[in-house]
């Protein structure tokens, strides 16, 4: 019987109806598909999905909508293993203008038997919930809370098998899924390399968003890094106000890679400045020092060789605040560094 039903799923291509891509948020969030939002903790992931969910539930524009876009109110859902619904999320959604009657979530306080711990991707409970309520959008925050315990997120095959039922469920019920994911801290990484645990999250999603901080204080960005059905959208610049709500600050054609490179450069510059100050203090206290001694002291202080070398070269070659010279000959040769006095000689 089961084999007969499965065989009915196979049919010639001419029996498939062509469909245009449809969007819950034009160009950003496709209908019936998986969208991924990844960012470091504290960047504003929750505020972003709250803004979107509130707008869909009430029929109002969200921060990502193009000017003049309109929609009808629609049922939506969110499931979270991080924030309390009663203590935080209900207020955030209310203040964002949500129609609370159109938003479905779990009441964990009523689960005395712990049955909701089985609410995972691919589980009969999750499948039946989506089939029964058919929300236009369903948010899972974070995705790690809904991966079955037997699934290794680092295994490509296991993650494909885990997410495949969700993709099929979206096309069956008309539900779109927004998966919230933490990013890793790997230096020099951007885009898909910043997705924690598994690159298959990127592959499964039809739209991928990356969020982070810009160089400007308190201004954040939301960059669309992947769009399977249309061209990439301009990056949203936004802030979070005192009530925890998203406020648009403009749009810009920059991607996660450029923002991450700028952040790394800023961090390197800050470390170099800190190392410069440390070198100056060492030379003030000790007078002239052997370069080998200074290098070993810098390493013991936690500065990398590259940071130390660039800081020293800046002091010697650019700022002329210190100078180096050699003493002795052959095996007795020794390089020394000291501060430069106002008269131009070593102190």
Write the layout of secondary structure elements.
Layout: H1 2-7, E1 23-25, E2 29-30, E3 34-39, H2 45-58, E4 76-80, H3 85-95, E5 103-104, H4 124-133, E6 137-141, H5 156-173, E7 176-182, H6 200-204, E8 207-213, E9 220-227, E10 235-240, E11 246-252, H7 256-286, E12 289-290, H8 291-301, H9 305-318, E13 322-327, E14 334-339
Helix pairs in contact: 2-3, 7-9
State the CATH class of the largest domain: Alpha Beta
The CATH topology of the largest domain: Rossmann fold
Radius of gyration, in angstroms, nearest whole number: 28 Å
- Widest sheet, order of strands: 5-4-6-7-3-8-9-10-11
- Total individual domains: 2
Distance from first to last alpha carbon: 93 Å
Main pleated sheet:
9 strands, mixed
Tell me what you see in this structure:
- The chain is elongated, with a radius of gyration of 28 Å.
- The protein has 347 residues and is of the alpha/beta class.
- The termini are far apart.
- Helices cover 35% and strands 21% of the residues.
- The strands form three sheets. Strands 5-4-6-7-3-8-9-10-11 form a nine-stranded mixed beta sheet, with helices on both faces. Strands 12-14-13 form a three-stranded antiparallel beta sheet.
- It folds into two domains: 235 residues, Rossmann fold (3-Layer(aba) Sandwich); 78 residues, Arc Repressor Mutant, subunit A, CATH 1.10.10.10.
- The model has no long low-confidence stretch (mean pLDDT 86).
- It has nine helices and 14 strands.
């Amino acid at each position: 019987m089961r084999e007969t039903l499965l065989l009915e799923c196979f049919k010639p291509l001419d029996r498939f109806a062509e469909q245009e891509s449809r969007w819950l948020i034009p160009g950003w969030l496709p209908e019936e598909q998986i969208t991924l939002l990844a960012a470091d903790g504290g960047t504003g992931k929750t505020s972003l999905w709250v803004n979107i969910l509130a707008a869909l539930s009430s029929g109002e524009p969200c921060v990502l909508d193009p000017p003049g876009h309109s929609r009808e109110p629609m049922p939506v859902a969110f499931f979270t293993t991080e924030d309390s619904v009663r203590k935080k999320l209900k207020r955030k959604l209310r203040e964002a203008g949500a129609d609370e009657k159109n938003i479905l979530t779990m009441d964990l306080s009523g689960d005395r038997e712990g049955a909701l711990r089985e609410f995972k991707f691919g589980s009969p409970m999750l499948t039946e919930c989506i089939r029964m309520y058919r929300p236009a959008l369903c948010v899972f925050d974070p995705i790690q809370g809904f991966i079955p315990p037997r699934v290794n997120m680092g295994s490509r095959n296991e993650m494909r098998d885990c997410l495949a039922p969700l993709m099929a469920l979206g096309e069956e019920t008309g539900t779109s899924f927004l998966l919230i994911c933490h990013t890793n801290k790997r230096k020099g990484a951007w885009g898909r390399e910043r997705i924690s645990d598994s690159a298959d999250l990127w592959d499964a999603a039809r739209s991928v968003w990356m969020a982070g901080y810009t160089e400007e204080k308190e201004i954040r960005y939301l960059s669309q890094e992947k769009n399977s059905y249309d061209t990439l959208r301009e990056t949203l610049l936004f802030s979070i106000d005192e009530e925890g709500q998203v406020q648009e600050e403009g749009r810009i054609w920059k991607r996660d890679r450029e923002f991450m490179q700028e952040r790394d450069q800023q961090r390197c510059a800050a470390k170099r400045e800190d190392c410069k100050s440390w070198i100056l203090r060492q030379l003030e206290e000790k007078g002239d020092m052997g370069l080998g001694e200074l290098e070993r002291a810098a390493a013991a202080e936690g500065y990398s060789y590259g940071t130390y070398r660039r800081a020293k070269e800046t002091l010697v070659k650019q700022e002329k605040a210190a100078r180096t010279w050699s003493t002795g000959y052959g095996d007795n040769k020794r390089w020394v560094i000291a501060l430069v006095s106002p008269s131009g000689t070593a102190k």
